[in-house]
Design goal:
This protein has helices spanning about 5-10, 45-50, 75-80, 90-115, 145-160, 180-190, 225-230, 250-265, 270-275, 290-295, 360-370, 435-450, 465-470, 490-510; strands at about 35-40, 60, 65-70, 85-90, 165-170, 190-195, 195-200, 220-225, 235-240, 280-285, 370-375, 380, 405-410, 415-420, 450-455, 475-480, 520-530, 530-535, 540-545, 570-575, 590, 590-595, 605-610, 620-630, 640-645. The chain is α+β, with helices and mostly antiparallel strands and about 650 residues long. It has two domains: about 95-510, Zn peptidases (Aminopeptidase, 3-Layer(aba) Sandwich), CATH 3.40.630.10; about 520-645, Immunoglobulin-like. The strands form six sheets. It has an eight-stranded mixed beta sheet with strand order 5-8-10-9-13-16-14-15, sandwiched between helices. The protein has a five-stranded mixed beta sheet with strand order 18-25-24-20-21, covered by helices on one side. A hairpin with a 2-residue loop joins strand 6 and strand 7 (about 195-200). Helix 8 packs across helix 14 and helix 12 runs antiparallel to helix 14. It is globular.
Length: about 650
C-alpha cells in the first residue's frame, strides 16, 4: 500500500462497534488490492501536499496538472472519498497486471525446472538454478535475488582480480529463529476479516517461490583492479538498489552496469581506466526479503514496499501491510518533520520504524558504507570517508569540495534526479555543497532526460541520501528511474537501461572530485587516427569538448531555488599519456581547436593534436583528454586506447571492412 496515515485511512470505513464496512462496489477477496495505474488531478501545491498524506510515491506532471500513481483499487476509492478526481488508466493497469501474472508464471516455471533438474543447494532457493534461456519475455529481464547472486559469483570466479563479494549483514528474517516460510506461516495463519470478508492470507502465497531457509543476506559487489590499486586509497562509488521491494528496475540497472565494467575491462578504454583507478561497491538488492514478497500474488503482494519485519512492523489491520520502510529508517533527520516525511503507523508504507536504524538491513548498510560512529560523533571504518564533521542537527556545515567518492540510491519510477536535502530546511533547503551537487544532478539529467529538481514537493525524512551526505559529507543522490514499478522489459531494454547506464558511466568518471569536475566540460568522442602504430609514427588525436550537457529544471511548481548552471565557453583542452590529469607525473599536451571553431567561441569545441609515439614503450596505452572552460573549471576526463608496436614489428593490419 502507498497510504500514509492508516488511522485516518481506515476511519471512514470503520463503524462505532469496530467492524469494517464493505466498500462499494463489492469485490471478492484481495482483488481490492490489485495494482492500478491512475492519474490524480490537482490544481495547486496544496493539493499535492494533501495527496502526499495518502500516496507516498507519485510522478508529477505539472503542465498536465496530474499525478501518476500505482495504487490498489481500495486506495482509488479512498482518494475519491477525499475529494480527489482519480482517472484509471486501463491500458497501463492491464500492462501491470499482465506483468505480474507473467512474472509469477515465469518464477513458477523456474522453480519447477530447477526441481526437476536437481535438488536445490542448501541455502539457495530453487529459483537460482534456472538457466539463462528462461530469461525471455516481458517480465523476465529482471533477475531474482538468487539469479543475481549466482551471476555475480560466476563473474567473481572468472575475474578474481577485478571482482569480489563482500558481506554486508543480515536481514530481519535472518535474525529470527524460524525460516522464511515458517515465519510467514506463524504470522499469517490467522483468518482476517477485512471489508466484511474472511480471508486466509496464506492461500495467496506460493511457498514454492520462497526460500526454505533464512533467505538471502545483504551483499556488496566490489569491483576494481586489485593489482593496479594494491594498497592505494582510491575514490569509491557506492550504490544501493531496490531498497523498496516492488521496484524491479534499480537492481537490474546496477547489476548490468557492474557487468559492463567487468566484461569490458581491457577492451573498452573507459571501463579500463575506471577500474584501474577507482573502486565500485554495489549493494544490488538492499531489501532481498521484501523482494521475495513483492514477487508473490499480484493481488496480495504486488505493491509490497517495505522489509519483512512481522514483529516491530506488524500491521494488525492486515498483515500484508507489515514491515518497515528502510528508506525512512536511516538516522540523519529520522522523524524530524512532525510526521510529514514518514509515518509512525506500522500499516503505512512509509513507516519509519520504532527508532533510527532499528532494522538489521539499515544498520548493516549504514555500517558498511559509513562505518561505526565514534565517541566524537564521527564515523570511521566505512567504504566512504567521513569529512563533514558536524552535529546531527547541523544542516548548514558543508564538506570539503575535494571530497572523493559518491553515493547513489537507485529507485523507480518517477524519473527524477534528487539530492539533499529531502527535508525542507532553511530558506532554500540547499546544502553548503549545492553548487557541485546540483551541477552533477543536472549532468545526470542530460544523460537520462529526467527532472533534476533537488527534492520532490513533499518531505522525506530518515533517507539514505540525507544520511550519507549529512553524516559523511559524501555527494549523495537518489535517481528515480523508469516508467513503472512493473516496467515491461521492452521499455526497460530500449529506454530506461541505456539512458541510465550512460548516466552511471558519467558519474563514475567524476569520482575523483564529484563536487568539482561536473562544473567543467565533458570530453567526448575521443578518437585516434590509427588504433595501432609502430614506435615513432605520429597519430592524430581528436575529441569534442562539450560544456552544454546540463538539463536544467526550475523545481516543482517553480517554488524551489534550484541552482542553474549555464554552459560556459571552452578555454582549453589537454591530452595526457597513461596518467590521469591529477596524478603525479601528469604532463599536459595542449590540444588545438579545429579550423571550424576556436577556443572562446562557444560551449562546444572540436579539438585535435598530433601525438608523437617515439618515447612510447611497446604495448597498449591510454590517452586521456580533459577540457577546461572559461571559469578555469576542468571537467571529467575520458580516454582512448592506442597500441604501439616495436619499430621493427610488421606493419599493423588494416581494420577489417564490414560487409555491406
Amino acid at each position: 500500500m502507498a497510504g500514509r496515515q492508516w488511522v485516518d485511512f481506515f476511519a471512514p470505513l470503520v463503524l462505532a462497534q469496530g467492524t469494517i464496512v464493505k466498500p462499494s462496489p463489492a469485490r471478492e477477496g484481495l482483488e481490492q488490492f490489485q495494482t492500478i495505474s491512475a492519474r490524480v488531478l490537482y490544481e495547486s501545491r496544496d493539493d499535492i501536499q494533501r495527496l502526499s498524506k495518502f500516496v507516498d510515491h507519485m510522478r508529477i506532471d505539472e503542465p498536465g496538472k496530474t499525478v501518476t500513481v500505482e495504487i490498489s483499487r481500495f486506495e482509488v476509492e479512498r482518494l475519491r472519498s477525499e475529494g480527489f478526481k482519480v482517472e484509471i488508466d486501463a491500458e497501463k493497469s492491464r500492462s501491470i497486471q499482465n506483468f505480474q501474472q507473467q512474472r509469477g508464471a515465469f518464477l513458477k516455471r523456474q522453480a519447477l525446472n530447477a526441481q526437476q533438474a536437481s535438488a536445490p543447494t542448501v541455502g539457495i532457493s530453487p529459483l537460482g538454478k534456472a538457466d539463462d534461456s528462461m530469461f525471455e519475455g516481458n517480465a523476465a529481464c529482471y533477475r531474482t535475488v538468487e539469479k543475481t547472486n549466482l551471476d555475480v559469483d560466476a563473474l567473481a570466479k572468472q575475474y578474481p582480480d577485478l571482482i569480489r563479494v563482500a558481506p554486508v549483514g543480515p536481514t530481519w528474517v535472518q535474525t529470527q529463529a524460524l525460516s522464511f516460510r515458517n515465519l510467514l506461516t506463524r504470522y499469517l495463519s490467522t483468518n482476517f476479516d477485512f471489508s466484511g470478508l474472511s480471508m486466509n492470507l496464506l492461500s495467496y502465497i506460493d511457498f514454492d517461490l520462497l526460500p526454505d531457509s533464512a533467505g538471502n543476506s545483504l551483499r556488496a559487489v566490489v569491483i576494481g583492479n586489485r593489482v593496479a590499486i594494491k594498497d592505494k586509497t582510491v575514490p569509491r562509488l557506492v550504490t544501493t538498489s531496490s531498497i523498496h521491494a516492488r521496484e524491479y528496475t534499480p537492481a537490474e540497472i546496477s547489476t548490468r552496469f557492474a557487468e559492463w565494467l567487468i566484461k569490458n575491462y581491457g577492451t573498452d578504454p573507459t571501463a579500463t581506466w575506471l577500474l584501474n583507478n577507482n573502486e565500485f561497491h554495489f549493494i544490488l538488492h538492499a531489501n532481498p526479503d521484501g523482494r521475495k514478497l513483492a514477487e508473490q500474488s499480484e493481488e496480495a503482494m504486488g505493491l509490497w514496499r517495505k522489509n519483512m519485519n512481522l514483529e516491530d512492523g506488524y500491521c494488525a489491520v492486515l498483515p500484508i501491510f507489515s514491515g518497515v520502510d528502510l528508506n525512512r529508517n536511516f538516522p540523519f533527520g529520522w522523524n524530524s518533520t512532525g510526521g510529514r516525511g514518514s509515518s509512525s503507523s506500522s500499516c503505512a508504507d512509509d513507516f519509519r520504524g520504532n527508532s533510527a536504524a532499528s532494522e538489521p538491513e539499515t544498520a548493516a548498510i549504514l555500517k558498511y558504507i559509513a562505518g561505526t560512529r565514534q565517541q566524537d560523533g564521527n564515523f570511521s571504518g566505512g567504504v566512504l570517508q567521513d569529512r563533514r564533521t558536524a552535529a546531527v542537527t547541523d544542516f548548514s556545515t558543508g564538506a570539503p569540495n575535494d571530497y572523493e567518492g559518491l553515493y547513489i540510491d537507485i529507485h523507480s519510477f518517477s524519473q527524477l534526479v534528487l539530492w539533499p536535502w529531502g527535508i525542507k530546511h532553511g530558506r532554500t533547503g540547499q546544502t553548503a555543497n549545492d553548487d557541485g551537487m546540483s551541477a552533477l544532478g543536472q549532468r545526470f539529467a542530460w544523460y537520462n532526460g529526467y527532472r533534476a529538481t533537488q527534492k520532490i514537493d513533499y518531505d522525506t525524512d530518515g533517507t539514505t541520501m540525507d544520511t550519507f551526505y549529512g553524516e559523511l559529507g559524501a555527494p549523495s543522490f537518489t535517481i528515480e528511474l523508469g516508467t513503472s514499478f512493473h516496467e515491461p522489459c521492452d521499455s526497460f531494454e530500449k529506454d530506461t537501461f541505456p539512458k541510465n547506464v550512460a548516466s552511471l558511466k558519467y558519474a563514475a568518471r567524476t569520482l575523483k572530485a564529484p563536487y568539482q569536475l561536473p562544473l567543467g566540460p565533458d570530453a567526448t568522442d575521443i578518437k585516434v587516427s590509427a588504433a595501432t602504430v609502430r614506435q615513432g609514427e605520429a597519430v592524430t588525436l581528436t575529441a569534442v569538448i562539450d560544456d552544454d550537457r546540463y538539463l536544467y529544471d526550475a523545481g516543482f511548481s517553480g517554488n524551489q531555488a534550484v541552482t542553474k548552471h549555464d554552459p560556459q565557453l571552452i578555454k582549453a583542452a589537454n591530452a595526457y599519456i597513461n596518467v590521469l590529469p591529477w596524478e603525479n607525473g601528469a604532463k599536459a599536451i595542449p590540444l588545438s581547436a579545429t579550423a571550424n571553431a576556436s577556443f572562446g567561441s562557444g560551449p562546444k569545441v572540436a579539438v585535435s593534436g598530433v601525438i608523437d609515439t617515439s618515447a612510447f614503450a611497446p604495448g597498449k596505452h591510454l590517452i586521456y583528454v580533459q577540457g577546461i572552460n572559461q571559469k578555469d573549471k576542468a571537467g571529467p576526463p575520458d580516454a582512448v586506447f592506442l597500441e604501439v608496436l616495436a619499430k621493427d614489428a610488421p606493419a599493423p593490419c588494416p581494420p577489417k571492412q564490414q560487409a555491406v
